[in-house]
Automatic annotation (TrEMBL):
Lineage: superkingdom: Bacteria
Gene3D superfamilies in the record: YefM-like domain (3.40.1620.10)
Lineage summary: Bacteria, Pseudomonadati, Pseudomonadota, Alphaproteobacteria, Sphingomonadales
Record function comment: Antitoxin component of a type II toxin-antitoxin (TA) system.
UniProt-listed InterPro entries: Antitoxin_Phd/YefM, phD/YefM_antitoxin, YefM-like_sf
Protein name per its UniProtKB record: Antitoxin
Stretches assigned to coiled coil: none
Family as reported in the entry's similarity comment: Belongs to the phD/YefM antitoxin family.
Transmembrane regions listed in the UniProt entry: none
Organism: Sandaracinobacteroides saxicola
Length: 82
């Protein structure tokens, strides 16, 4: 069965265990597919890339809320009432 590889780099679990820091450094900030018997088992995503993904996800969720609330009646509020 052919498995999609959703990263431009891959490493075996054995090589990852030998030197995880070297794998992270060699990836240069990009995700790495972790392979077990040439089958992707997981993806190693550097912290900066993960944070960027989470920011994008939050932006998409907020955009959905904005679209959902578009056209609702506005409520006047005074800053003193808050």
């Amino acid at each position: 069965m052919i498995e999609p590889l959703l990263a431009s780099a891959a490493v075996s679990i054995s090589n990852l265990k030998k030197n995880p820091s070297a794998v992270i450094a060699a990836a240069e900030g990009a995700p790495v597919a972790i392979l077990n018997r040439n089958t992707p088992q997981a993806y190693l995503v550097p912290a900066a890339a993960w944070e960027a993904l989470m920011d994008q996800l939050e932006d998409l969720e907020l955009a959905a809320i904005v679209r959902e609330r578009e056209g609702q009646e506005e409520i006047e509020v005074s800053i003193d009432d808050l």
